[in-house]
Write a structure and sequence with these properties.
Elements (H helix, E strand, L loop, with lengths): L1 H21 L2 E6 L5 E3 L2 E2 L7 E6 L4 E6 L7 E4 L14 E2 L13 E4 L13 E7 L7 E5 L3 E10 L4
Parallel strand pairs: 1-5, 4-11, 7-8
Antiparallel strand pairs: 1-2, 2-3, 5-9, 6-10, 8-9, 10-11
Length: 158
């Protein structure tokens, strides 16, 4: 019995460590050309999105915005230049009650009490990929809208 309990605790600890080791931080930045960039890929000002793909549960998307031109990130319903396109439903922003957004697929982390989601900011905003993430999540800049779009996509299951 003692060995069984010890084995179970060890297996649980290893599963936890292996999940944490597999998680990656994906950096998304703004460029002087009013585009999003990540891992050598870039959006285009004609509405062609930056695709941040192969995301896995636990990964962190680190949105980094420098000083100068105002930018921010907000999720959108579709990759189209239409009115009433913005939605906050996919993101559990800092300060929001988890029970009010059970279907959130991203969670803002490390905010120090203030959310940067859905507004212009300077610095970093980190979003964690949650286990509820199943479909693409589209986004655009809070200032430049359809001119700066992106898509977050899970790694295909094999």
């Amino acid at each position: 019995m003692r060995n069984s309990v010890g084995s179970l605790i060890f297996a649980s600890a290893m599963a936890s460590v292996s999940t944490q080791v597999l998680a990656e931080t994906r950096i998304v930045t703004t460029t002087p050309q009013f585009t999003w960039a990540s891992s050598g890929k870039e959006s285009k000002t004609d509405g062609t999105p930056l695709v941040v793909d192969n995301l896995q549960v636990g990964d962190i998307i680190d949105v980094q915005i420098g000083v100068g031109v105002p930018h921010g990130l907000i999720t959108i319903k579709q990759l189209a230049d239409v009115n009433d396109n913005q939605t906050t439903e996919p993101v559990l922003a800092c300060g929001e009650d988890r029970t009010k957004k059970p279907n959130a697929v991203l969670r803002e982390t490390e905010c120090g009490g203030k959310s940067n989601f859905g507004q212009n900011f300077t610095g970093s905003m980190k979003l964690e990929v949650l286990s509820t993430f199943t479909n693409d999540v589209n986004f655009w800049c809070t200032e430049h809208f359809f001119m700066m779009t992106g898509t977050l996509r899970l790694k295909p299951k094999t």
